[in-house]
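TA notes, week 10

Several of you asked for a full example with nothing omitted. So below is the full record: structure tokens for the whole chain, then the designed sequence directly under it. When grading your own attempts, check the secondary structure regions first.
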């Protein structure tokens, strides 16, 4: 039996929703997907100027980029920004990249530190998926990639909130993959190790590099290339998997 082919919608365009595409890893993913021929729905929350810069780079590649501002932690805002748009046209690709840290030892971690991180990193994935999944199921095609973390696989002191949110994403991806695979929607997680971005700006990355078998921290392109592969490669039999991008660290 031949594998199901992705049905191109009648307008011939391919649309990628990149959630949290204004900075860092999400920005690199957005630019790679645009280069691969996707029009973008690019979401941001606080970084309007950075998002506008990505949009103008995408426009320079001859692709459309629609900027959407919402807080992924808010079900109402996320649904308001995405649901009607997705009903008109299902996205071909969804990348859930938004994430924050509020690192503290548990004894100092406030309820707000806990709940903000869970709401942004994990509940946001539910909020986004809930808003677009019906339309993707009807289209019977698509790729969903969530950005998890090495911390969600092995834990990290000072990151109980973050590690729990990223481990939760892994469970969510595995469960969702079991639900939607029969509709030709492939769902995977990418799990980066130490990557040089704003998020890791306060960390001694030279020290961290010594812990990595490849002896360097990762770049945003190291992560974006794997996401691009999962989203773009036509011949794809990877589904419900967690792909580590961590320079060889043990999971
Ligand atoms: P950055 O801090 O550089 O970027 C985070 C992105 O998430 C921004 O686009 C930001 O948008 C968006 N975002 C944050 N909060 C919200 C919110 N409430 N609603 C909507 N969007 C939001 O982080 P990185 O690029 O480093 O990280 C990207 C992803 O990769 C995260 O999920 C992170 O956990 C994960 N990761 C990163 C690692 C690293 O070492 N850097 C390692 C492992 C995983 P805006 O600025 O517009 O608010």
């Amino acid at each position: 039996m031949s594998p199901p082919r992705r049905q191109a919608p009648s307008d011939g365009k391919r649309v990628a929703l990149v959630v949290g595409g204004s900075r860092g890893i999400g920005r690199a993913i957005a630019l790679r997907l645009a280069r691969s021929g996707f029009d973008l729905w690019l979401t941001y929350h606080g970084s309007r100027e950075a998002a506008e810069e990505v949009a103008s780079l995408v426009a320079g590649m001859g692709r459309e980029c629609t900027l959407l501002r919402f807080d992924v932690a808010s079900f109402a805002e996320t649904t308001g920004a995405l649901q009607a748009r997705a009903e008109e046209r299902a996205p071909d690709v969804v990348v859930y990249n938004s994430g924050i840290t509020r690192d503290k030892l548990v004894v100092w971690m406030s309820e707000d530190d806990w709940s903000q991180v869970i709401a942004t990193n994990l509940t946001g994935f539910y909020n986004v998926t809930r808003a677009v999944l019906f339309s993707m199921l009807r289209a019977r095609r698509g790729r969903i990639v969530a950005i998890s973390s090495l911390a969600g696989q092995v834990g990290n002191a000072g990151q109980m909130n973050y590690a729990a949110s990223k481990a939760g994403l892994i469970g969510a991806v595995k469960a969702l993959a079991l639900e939607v695979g029969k509709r030709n929607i492939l769902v995977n997680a990418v799990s980066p190790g130490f990557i040089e971005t704003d998020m890791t700006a306060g960390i001694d990355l030279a020290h961290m590099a010594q812990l990595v078998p490849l002896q360097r921290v990762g770049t945003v392109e190291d992560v974006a290339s794997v996401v691009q592969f999962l989203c773009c490669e036509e011949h794809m039999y990877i589904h419900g998997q967690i792909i580590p991008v961590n320079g060889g660290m043990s999971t």
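The pocket of NDP is lined by residues 20, 22-26, 44-47, 71-73, 97-100, 120, 147, 149, 192, 194-195, 197-200 (CB under 6 Å). Use that as a sanity check on your answer.
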